Amino acid sequence: MKELSHNIVYKLLKQAQEAGDIKEDINLELLVKIYFFRIDNLVFKKNNLFESYGKAELFKHLVIYNLKGIITGL
Questions:
Q1: CA-based Rg of the chain, rounded to a whole angstrom?
Q2: With contact defined as beta carbons under 8 Å apart, do 6 and 33 qualify?
Q3: Per-residue pLDDT band at 16 (split at 50, 70, 90)
Q4: What's the pLDDT tens digit per position in 32-52?
Q5: 9: buried, middle or exposed (CB in 10 Å: 19+, 13-18, 0-12)?
Q6: How far apart are CA 72 and CA 5, in angstroms?
Q7: Which of 16, 35, 40, 67 could potentially form a cystine with 21 if both were Cys, beta carbons 3.0 to 4.6 Å apart?
Q8: Distance CA 62, CA 59 (A)
Q9: Which distant-in-sequence residues (6+ apart) come within 8 Å of 42 by Cβ?
Q10: Which 3-state string (H, E, C) describes the chain?
Q11: Cβ atoms of 43 and 50 closer than 8 Å
Q12: Is the dihedral of CA 54, 58, 59, 64 positive or negative?
């Protein structure tokens, strides 16, 4: 999980921020830590969300809708 969060997700978000696609005032390191802490607790624990919701719906709510809040121009 650490490999994914720090070496992939953080770097992609940083590139997007440098390109002006993510608001400048977003602390990406904190964002990634909070997000992956939540994901770990919501998705990978006993009685997780995968037992109640489909993958596509979870993806939209956990990824897409969260990204819309940090993207510029919306």
A1: 13
A2: no
A3: very high
A4: 888 877 777 777 777 778 888
A5: middle
A6: 22
A7: 16
A8: 5
A9: 48, 49, 62
A10: CHHHHHHHHHHHHHHHHHCCCECCCCCHHHHHHHHHHHHHHHHCCCCCHHHCCCHHHHHHHHHHHHHHCCECCC
A11: yes
A12: positive
Q: What is the pLDDT of residue 26?
A: 92
User: Please, what's the b/e burial string for 30-66 (b: 16 or more CB within 10 A of its CB; e: otherwise)?
Assistant: ebbeebbeebeeeeeeeeebeeeeeeeebeeebeeee
Of 1, 4, 25, 22, the C-alpha closest to 13 is 22
Cβ distance 58 to 50 under 8 Å? Answer: yes
pLDDT surpasses 60 at 1 = no
Cα→Cα distances 12→1, 27, 30, 42, Å? 16, 14, 15, 23
